[in-house]
Amino acid sequence: MNHVRLATLFVGVMVLLAGCTGGDPVSEGGATDADGSASDDGASDGAGDGSAAESGLDVTESERLLADAGSFTAEWSFAVTESDGTESAVTSTYLVDLEKNRSVERLSTVGPDSRMDFETFYADGTTYTRYGDGEEEFYQVVDGADDTFESALARGSFGYESVEDAEFVGQETFDGVTVDRYEYTDPHLWRQYGASAFGSDENVTVTDFTVVVLVDGDGLARKTQWTLTGETDDGEPVSAKWHYALTGVGATTVDDPEWLDAARSRQSERDSARIELPARAP
């Protein structure tokens, strides 16, 4: 089993779930509780409490709710485990402060085909980017508008209408907020799809496909994830997981990164090293 075939399955799943919109998969959050995870303590049936459970899964106002909140942290990730045990993952984290017009975007990858990590910081009309780390570290400084808010929203694009039959299973706490938990499982559909999604030489049978959505009282999907497990014709297990999470809603701050002075210094050195050629004679 190779990574390309798992990625092929991932793309196919997202095309179906996103209603052929080509939207990115959804991931789970950036800033977290002290323990970095959701809490299941105090789960209840949510009956009669005016929560999203009474009106069904409706999360269509995410952009407005996040804009009104003024700041948030978003985390998106996609991970696969191949039949030979190789694990690969990519994670994007976004910190957005709309009120102060500052943002951070981080990308990290894990696995044999991982690429160079980077971090981007935006403030005062300038974007600073650090690539790599240590001896391989270098910087880029560019003036221009910031699109981190739009990028963070795009990462969370998900075809919720495809799982409108998701079942409300109770309430829990995520990032200090009470949320309704919805779950959707349809292994039959994905067994049929997965049989041919991994290529002709090594088919995969999907044994489980589950979507989990956590929705707060305002109708904001705080966390969305899907997990897929399967096995090859030889009985080797494979899996894929995608998640998108929103944390620190209304409470995210964007500080200067530790490397900002170094980026400015390098840019200043490059600017001062430029040689202005004399104008050509007419």
From TrEMBL:
Transmembrane segments: none annotated. It comes from Haloarcula limicola. Residues 28-56 have a biased composition (Low complexity). Pfam families: DUF7537 (PF24381). This is Lipoprotein. PROSITE patterns: PROKAR_LIPOPROTEIN. Residues 263-274 have a biased composition (Basic and acidic residues). Residues 28-57, 263-282 are annotated as: Disordered.
